[in-house]
Amino acid sequence: MPKQKSKKQNRYLPFAVGFKIPSEQEKRKAIGSSPMIPALDPQSFKGFGFFPPIPRPTSIDDWLAQYVEEGQSYSDYQRQCPWLSKRKLKYMPQQFVSKGKTILEKYPDGKIYLLPVGDFSGENCVKFKSLRDFAQIYLGLPVVELPGIALEEENHKIFWTENPEDRPTHGARSSSRKRKFEINSRYHPGTNRIQLKMDETLLRLRSLIPTDALCMVGLTMYDLYGDDTDLFVAGMAAGNHRVAMFSFNRYDPALSFSIEKWYDITCDSTISASERRKLILQRSCKLLVHEIGHLLGIDHCIYYDCCMNGSGHLSEDFRQPMHLCPVDLHKLQTLVGFDIVERYQKLAGFYKEHKMEEELKWVTRRIEFITDQTKS
Ligand SMILES: [Zn+2]
Ligand SMILES: [Zn+2]
Predict the structure, then answer these.
(1) 54 C-alpha vs ligand 2 centroid, how far in Å?
(2) CA of 279 to the centre of ligand 2 (A)
(3) Who has greater pLDDT, 164 or 297?
(4) pTM (2 decimals)?
(5) 291 is catalytic
(6) 177 alpha carbon – ligand 1 mean position (Å)
(7) pLDDT tens digits, residue range 169-220?
(8) Opening angle at CA 137, ends 279 and 51, nearest 5
(9) Of 23, 67, 335, 346, which is the most buried if we count CB atoms within 10 A?
(10) CATH number for the domain running over 82-297
(11) Do the beta carbons of residue 324 and residue 308 sit within 8 Å?
(12) What's the CA-to-centroid distance between 351 and ligand 1, angstroms?
C-alpha cells in the first residue's frame, strides 16, 4: 500500500494484459442515453471536462494494472441487476410489487441500513449523521442509522455486545437478554493495536438485517483483515450481497501506514483539525456510496473517471472523484427514478455545508450546464 504517489511515478504503466480501453463510440453506447435525458447525452457535454477518461495506471498496484475488468454498460445493468428483476429477490421477507419500475416501487418498504460497529464518538471519527445524510442524497433512497453494536475490549480481546431491545424491526427473538461474544481479532503488543477479522463479524451482521432492509452496511473505525496474510482490508460483502462491512480506519489523512506491518502506523500532527475532519468525511462518503453502489448491482466502471472505478490501494482510492460518470448515473437514475438536477442541487447543499469545495464546484458547473442545455 504505497502511502502517497511520488512525482517520478507519473509515467504510465500498461493495463493488465487483456484489458481493452473503451473507444468513444463504446462509451456512448455504454451510457445508453436517450433524448429524454439531455443530462446524459455525451454529445452535449463534450469539451466541458466533466467526465475525463479513466486514468491510465501509474503504479503496478493500480486496479486496472492488475485486473481485466470488462465493464458493465447501462444495458448490461438493466439485464443483470437483481433489483430491476420482475422476480422478488431471494430471502426478502418484505412486500414486493413485480410491476413496479423503480426499486422503491418494487420494494415499497425498502430502506438501506447503516449499522455502527464500535465507537464513533472520537474527535477524528466520521460523524454518522453526515454519512447518513450524504448516502440518502447521493442514492436517492431512504437511509436509516441503526442503534450501534458496542465492541468491548478486554485483555486485548474484542467482545461484540448486542442488546436485543435495540432491534425491534428484526422480528421475533428467542431471548431478550443482552448477548456478548468474543470475535476473532489480532493484537500487537508492541504498538497496542488491535484488528478485527471479517469472517465472524459478517456472520453476526447477517443475523441482524432488518426485515424491510434492501441492504445493510456495518461501519467501523476498527482496522479489518480477512486472512492472516492480509495487511488490512477496507471491507467486504457477505454471501447474498445484502450485507457488507467496511472500515474507515485508514482514511485519516494524519495517519500513515507501513506497507509491511499492519500495526505500524504513524501520526502526523501538522495537518489542521478541520482539514483532517473534512478529508475523513469526504473519503468515508465516497467509500460508502461506492460500496452501496455494488450492493445495488453496479459493477466497477471502466468508461470514465468515476466513483465506481476500482481501486487497488489507498492513494488510487483517494484520487478518484465523488461523482458518477454518465454510465453509472444512468443506472442509478433508472433504479431510483430521481430527477438528475434535483439530486445535484441537494448534493450541492451537502458539499456547501461540509466545505467540500472541489465537489461543490463540479456539481455547480453541472447544474448550470444542464439548465442552460434544457433552456436552449
Ligand atoms: Zn468496488
Ligand atoms: Zn462510471
Answers:
(1) 9
(2) 22
(3) 297
(4) 0.91
(5) yes
(6) 38
(7) 555 455 567 888 898 988 888 878 889 998 888 888 888 999 999 999 999 9
(8) 70
(9) 335
(10) 3.40.390
(11) yes
(12) 23
